[in-house]
Write a structure and sequence with these properties.
This protein is α+β, with helices and mostly antiparallel strands. The chain is 19% helix and 27% strand.
Length: 123
């Protein structure tokens, strides 16, 4: 006999990963940088999980908040265009304005469209 159990997140849980919004996974890349390691260049990726630990994130009343109880907002960046659209500058300006507005209320985590972690690629 096989039994299946479903774990339902508790709204007041301290474990932040249970409050991640749809489409955001713990291993989603937030940023990356090239670092020298034993004479060669390596790429160091920072994931959502690592950043949430650094921010001391937790679930509070079903929402993801940082160590200062400020709600965390995930924002997916645009800009990974092989051939950018005609209005790409307008799109980037709109994105910048929206991020500035959101940062007044939230701790904003920007999710780049470049998820392979190569900092040389345009994001």
């Amino acid at each position: 006999m096989v039994m299946f159990f479903t774990i339902t997140p508790i709204a007041g849980s301290d474990h932040p990963l249970v409050c991640l919004p749809a489409g955001i996974k713990p291993d989603t890349v937030v940023t990356s940088e090239r670092v020298m390691s034993k004479g060669s260049t390596a790429i160091r990726k920072v994931t959502v999980s690592q950043l949430l630990t650094k921010l001391r994130a937790r679930c509070k009343k079903g929402k993801l908040v940082d160590g200062k109880s400020r709600e965390i907002y995930f924002y997916r960046l645009v800009g990974c265009w092989g051939n950018p659209p005609d209005d790409y500058q307008e799109l980037l300006e709109k994105q910048r304005n929206e991020i500035v507005r959101l940062k007044k209320k939230y701790t904003v985590i920007e999710i780049p469209c470049n998820q392979d972690g190569d900092p040389r690629k345009i994001s």
